[in-house]
Specification:
The protein is of the alpha+beta class and 326 residues long. 33% of the residues lie in helices and 26% in strands. The strands form 5 sheets. The protein has a 5-stranded mixed sheet, sandwiched between helices. A 4-stranded mixed sheet has the order 8-15-14-13, sandwiched between helices. The structure holds oxa(dethia)-CoA.
Length: 326
C-alpha cells in the first residue's frame, strides 16, 4: 500500500546521564597540559555542557531508548514498525548495521533496517529516504533515528575538536498518511570537500589503518556550512510553495550557535524561531536535529499544524533540508 504523504506521529530522545560542564572538561584537559577555557568555548560555539556515554555503552543502546520514547509518543508497538533507519557515523560495528541491532533490541523482526552515513546531515538524509519509501509503498511506519557516540572518535588531545561534541540519540516515528507531513526534502553533497571534516581510518587485516580520530578544519567548515544552509533552505521552501514567513520553527544542525544564527539571519528567520540545544547537548552530529525536535515538542513550543524547517550539514561534505508540517 502506498500513501500520498508521510507524517511525524511521535518523537523521542535519549541522552546518556553523565553531563560534563565546560569547567569540568577544562580542568580535565588542563591536567593533561591542554589549554582551553569556558569563555573560549561559550564565545566561539555557545556550548556549555555535553552528555557523554559511559565506556561500553553503544550507539544502538542510545538509539533503542530514543526509539522506545518515540513509539510511546506515537502510541505504537515495535511490531507496528516496518522500517528502521539509523543515521550514524559511530555505529556499534562495521557490520551489522546499528539499525539491525535496534530492531533486535526492540523485538520487531521482519521489516527493513539499515544505516545511512551522511555524518551531521544524516538525519535529513534518513528522513528523505524514509519519506520516499513510505510514499512509494515500500514501508508504512518507520523509525527514523539519529544516534551517535562521537566521544569515541574524539582526539582528547586536540582542543580544536574535543570540546565541541557530545553523545545522544533522537528518533521520530514517520507514518504513511493522506495529510502532509513531510512537505519537501532536498539533499546535496560535494565530495571535493571530503578532507575538511573526516575520520580517515578503516579496519584492514584486523588492524585500524589510518587515523581513527575526527579531524576538522573548523573555519573552512564554518564558511561552507553557512552558505550551503542558506541555499538548501530556499530550495525546500520553494518546493513546498512556501516562504520563510511560513516557517514556525527552524531546527538547524546544532554545531555552533554562531553558525545557526548566521544561517537564520541569511534566510530571514527570526532568532526566536530557532530551536537551540547546542548549549546543553554540544554537537551530537546526526542526533542533533531529532534531539532538538523532541525537546521543543515536549516543552510545548512545537505544536500540531506548525511548519518546522530542519537542516543538516557536515562531513562529506553533505547537507540537506527537510520541511515538515507537524
Ligand atoms: O558538525 C559538523 C559541522 N561542524 C561545524 O559546523 C563546526 C564548524 N566550525 C566551528 O564551529 C568553528 O570554526 C570552531 C568553533 C571549530 C572554531 O572557532 P573559530 O572562531 O573558527 O576559531 P579558529 O579555529 O579560527 O581558532 C581561533 C583560535 C586559534 O588560535 P590562534 O591560531 O588564533 O592563536 C586556535 O588555536 O582559537 C584557538 N583554539 C582554542 N583556544 C582555546 C582552538 N580551539 C580552542 C580551544 N580553546 N578549545
Amino acid at each position: 500500500m502506498s500513501f500520498r504523504h508521510s507524517r511525524i506521529i511521535g518523537t523521542g530522545s535519549y541522552l546518556p546521564p553523565r553531563t560534563v560542564a565546560n569547567e569540568a572538561l577544562v580542568r580535565e584537559l588542563a591536567a593533561r597540559g591542554i589549554e582551553t577555557s569556558d569563555e573560549w568555548i561559550v564565545e566561539r560555539t555557545g556550548i556549555r555542557q555535553r552528555h557523554l556515554a559511559e565506556p561500553g555503552v553503544a550507539c544502538s543502546e542510545l538509539a533503542t531508548e530514543a526509539s522506545r520514547r518515540a513509539l510511546d509518543a506515537a502510541a505504537l508497538q515495535p511490531t507496528d514498525i516496518d522500517l528502521i533507519i539509523v543515521a550514524t557515523s559511530t555505529p556499534d560495528y562495521v557490520f551489522p548495521s546499528t539499525a539491525c541491532l535496534v530492531q533486535k533490541a526492540l523485538g520487531a523482526p521482519g521489516g527493513a533496517a539499515f544505516d545511512v552515513q551522511a555524518v551531521c546531515s544524516g538525519f535529513t538524509y534518513a528522513m528523505a529516504v524514509a519519506d520516499s519509501m513510505i510514499r512509494t509503498g515500500l514501508a508504512s511506519r518507520a523509525l527514523v533515528i539519529g544516534a551517535e557516540v562521537f566521544s569515541r572518535i574524539l582526539d582528547w588531545n586536540d582542543r580544536g575538536t574535543c570540546v565541541l561534541f557530545g553523545d545522544g540519540a533522537g528518533a521520530v516515528v514517520l507514518a504513511g498518511d493522506e495529510r502532509p507531513g513531510v512537505l519537501a526534502a532536498r539533499l546535496h553533497a560535494d565530495g571535493r570537500h571530503e578532507s575538511i571534516l573526516r575520520t580517515a581510518g578503516n579496519v584492514c587485516g584486523g588492524k585500524v589503518l589510518g587515523h581513527p580520530y575526527l579531524t576538522m578544519d573548523g573555519p573552512a567548515v564554518f564558511k561552507l556550512a553557512v552558505s550551503v544552509l542558506d541555499a538548501v533552505a530556499r530550495e525546500a521552501l520553494a518546493d513546498a510553495g512556501m516562504t520563510t514567513a511560513d516557517v514556525d520553527w527552524f531546527i538547524p544542525h546544532q554545531a555552533n550557535v554562531r553558525i545557526m544564527q548566521a544561517a537564520a539571519k541569511r534566510i530571514g528567520i527570526a532568532l526566536e524561531k530557532v530551536v537551540v540545544t547546542v548549549d546543553r547537548h554540544a554537537n551530537t552530529s546526526a542526533a542533533s536535529i531529532p534531539l532538538a525536535l523532541d525537546v521543543a515538542v515536549r516543552d510545548g513550543r512545537i505544536r500540531p499544524g506548525q511548519n518546522v524547517l530542519m537542516e543538516g550539514v557536515g562531513g562529506g561534505f553533505t547537507w540537506g533540508a527537510v520541511l515538515v508540517r507537524m
